[in-house]
Amino acid sequence: MPPRRVIGIDAGGTKLLGGVVDDGLAVHHRVHRFWRGADRRETLDIVAEAVEEVRAAAPDIEAVGFGIPALVDWERGISVWSNHLPIGDVPFRDLMSERLGLPVYVDNDTNTAAMVEHRHGAAQGADHVVMVALGTGIGSGLVLDGRLYRGARGFAAELGHLVVDHDGEDCPGACPGVGCLETLASGKAIGRAAEHAAEAEPRSTFGRLRAQGREIGGGLVTELAHDGDAQARGILAGVGRRLGAGLTGIVNALNPEVVVIGGGAVAAGELLIEPARAVVRERALPPCAELVRIVPARFGEESGMLGAAALALDGGRA
Amino acid sequence: MPPRRVIGIDAGGTKLLGGVVDDGLAVHHRVHRFWRGADRRETLDIVAEAVEEVRAAAPDIEAVGFGIPALVDWERGISVWSNHLPIGDVPFRDLMSERLGLPVYVDNDTNTAAMVEHRHGAAQGADHVVMVALGTGIGSGLVLDGRLYRGARGFAAELGHLVVDHDGEDCPGACPGVGCLETLASGKAIGRAAEHAAEAEPRSTFGRLRAQGREIGGGLVTELAHDGDAQARGILAGVGRRLGAGLTGIVNALNPEVVVIGGGAVAAGELLIEPARAVVRERALPPCAELVRIVPARFGEESGMLGAAALALDGGRA
Predict the structure, then answer these.
(1) Which of chain B's ends, N or C, has fewer CB atoms near its CB within 10 Å?
(2) CB-based contacts of B196, cutoff 8 Å, min separation 6
(3) For residue B152, is it within any domain?
(4) What's the rounded Cα separation, in Å, for the pair B30 and B53?
């Protein structure tokens, strides 16, 4: 029998990653799109066109799974609210299903990532898992007592909006919060920290790049850090320690066995994860700190896409 | 048939509350004890003597349930670690059972409180409940998907050690954390805030009381606030708002239907709870904020004792 194939789409805060995925989780055709400030209709058009592009290469696909950066009313397939994309109050499942003529499944992007890391990835065998995906913002998923935890209405696991600085800065985006973890430790926060460093030290690496008009984002910081630049490494370490403060709280609150770090920022690897781990080791309640492992996602920044595909392969039973 | 009766003991950070409790949760004989700096042996002696005192009044009791302010290895009845009492690494269940000659059940104090508020109290009918008890520190219990959530080893729900000020003060007690919610919003934090206010404003209510050598604790602040003192009300409002910052994070993380506020500090009532509620309403993600109710514990500061009794009545099946 040929493998079953579906399309998995991870619609992130800045970009879309998608692909044809088979039931062995092998990816056959990848697609990338950037939103670049698209409004609601344009965003949904970009999503549908990305699906059609990969579908052309694989007409045998059965269904499409979407992970979206939103609070999702999972039973009804509605995108209720999003901090990053203009897709609040969108009947996403029905709309895409009608437009594509295919079965469609939709869930929060990091819920799907957490499930795939739990079943097949870095958290295999663990029943208490926290997944944190650092991209434009911070997405999260929780596997508690072996099952995906959704909360009362499906909105659970917004760990990017844990308050780690109760007197701090306003959360960017649509979130009305103050001092949210996402303002201090997302991929975007890495870029912001580098911008601040550039301003403070005009003769430093980032100060010079800024003077040259280069755009300073998390990707550039990570690249320079891997090349050994001390300033870039310091920025990642600072963001990692702030991530660690948020993780300390959640490790105390949930007593997980594994914390999986994914999302685009996981490209920084141990330069980001080790400082976070060190803070948890120092500051979490000792019995909780001793137990927990903090590890990179097995599927790197593709966890979301593979998770969305797994959701579709399972017919939505996540 | 006469009602079944057990003893419920809530061993808090500062004091012990206990009583004979029947299967209708009516309390027949109460007992109070203060630790006053007791060491490990003295603490365990005080506990056993308190049980014997109420048992003398009710020789028909079946069992004893204990709620203790500790991380509890629930299956083995071991007190693994405590921030407030010298009872770390104590085989509490077996030790008390042998000493008292009765069946003994033990769990974290606020786990038992959460269960009793979930089954019989302020969170009845809700499947997603966060219980926060403000006493010397902050104890917590989580009911998720209708069941008490314990985490990987039984240590879950230490919401007092959510980090809400990542660059803040060291957590007092044995916790190695920094900026823990408990440093900013426990009963003890109310007393500390009043001490600071007294220092800053010597001619204010608390400044004068301090000059008279009065000990300023949470109880006195609450009493004066109920009498209408503006400074005392301001202190409770400030602590309430900091509590609200912690709750905002946990409401975003867990999407609960109800947050129950208990513990001794609940004597402050709406003077403490309304400012916390206002912060959650303003700052939590709107779909989570709209759903959640933040309410006082039905059983006030007796939730822990009743929960411990309920644990014993259930034969430990919480």
Answers:
(1) N
(2) none
(3) yes
(4) 9
A176 and A272 share a domain?
A: yes
Interface check for B141 against chain A (CB to CB < 8 A): the answer is no
pLDDT in tens, chain A (318 residues): 788 999 999 999 899 999 999 999 999 999 999 999 999 999 999 999 999 999 999 999 999 999 999 999 989 999 999 999 999 999 999 999 999 999 999 999 999 999 999 999 999 999 999 999 999 899 999 999 999 999 999 999 999 999 999 999 999 889 999 999 999 999 999 999 999 999 999 999 999 999 999 999 999 999 999 999 999 999 999 999 999 999 999 999 999 999 999 999 999 999 999 999 999 999 999 999 999 999 999 999 999 999 999 999 998 765
Q: Is B253 on the interface with A (CB under 8 A)?
A: yes
Tell me if B242 and A166 make a contact (CB, 8 A cut-off): yes
> Is position B120 within any domain?
no
Instruction: Please count the structural domains in chain A.
Output: 2
Q: Are B177 and A153 in contact (CB < 8 Å)?
A: no
Q: Which residue of A has its CA nearest to B246?
A: A163
Which among A165, A176, A254 is the nearest to B151, CB-wise? A254
* Beta strand segments in chain A, E: 5-11, 15-22, 27-34, 64-68, 71-73, 78-81, 104-108, 129-134, 138-144, 147-148, 258-262, 293-296
Statement to judge: residues A35 and A171 lie in one domain: no
Could you tell me how far CA B40 lies from the centroid of its own chain?
21
Using CA atoms, how far apart are residues A283 and B84, in angstroms rounded to an integer? 17
- Please judge whether B177 and A254 are an interchain contact, meaning their C-beta atoms are less than 8 angstroms apart: no
ipTM of this model? 0.96
pTM across the whole model: 0.96
Nearest C-alpha neighbor of A54 from the set A33, A89, A29, A84: A29
Give the distance from residue A314's alpha carbon to the nearest chain B alpha carbon, in angstroms.
Answer: 22
Task: Please check whether residue A65 is in contact with residue A308, taking contact to mean a CB–CB distance below 8 angstroms.
Answer: yes
**Containing structural domain, residue B50:** 5-113+302-313
Chain A contact for B245 (CB, 8 A cutoff): yes
**Nearest chain B Cα distance for residue A86, angstroms:** 15
Residue B181 lies in a domain: yes
Confidence of residue B318 (pLDDT cuts 50, 70, 90): low
- Give domain status of residue A119, yes or no: no
- Which of B178, B253, B291 is facing A283, going by the closest CB pair? B178
Taking only residues 5 to 64 of chain A, the set having a beta carbon closer than 8 angstroms to any beta carbon of chain B reads: none
Chain A interface, best mutation among B90, B158, B252, B279, by max A CB count within 10 A: B252
Together in a domain, B180 and B219:
yes
**How many contacts, defined by CB atoms under 8 Å, are there between A and B?**
184
Surface-to-core class of residue B83, CB atoms within 10 Å of its CB (0-12 exposed, 13-18 middle, 19+ buried): buried
Question: Is A189 in the B-facing interface, judged by CB distances under 8 Å?
Answer: no
Q: Cα–Cα distance between A222 and A227 in angstroms, integer?
A: 9
| Chain B residues in contact with A165 (beta carbon < 8 A) | 164-167
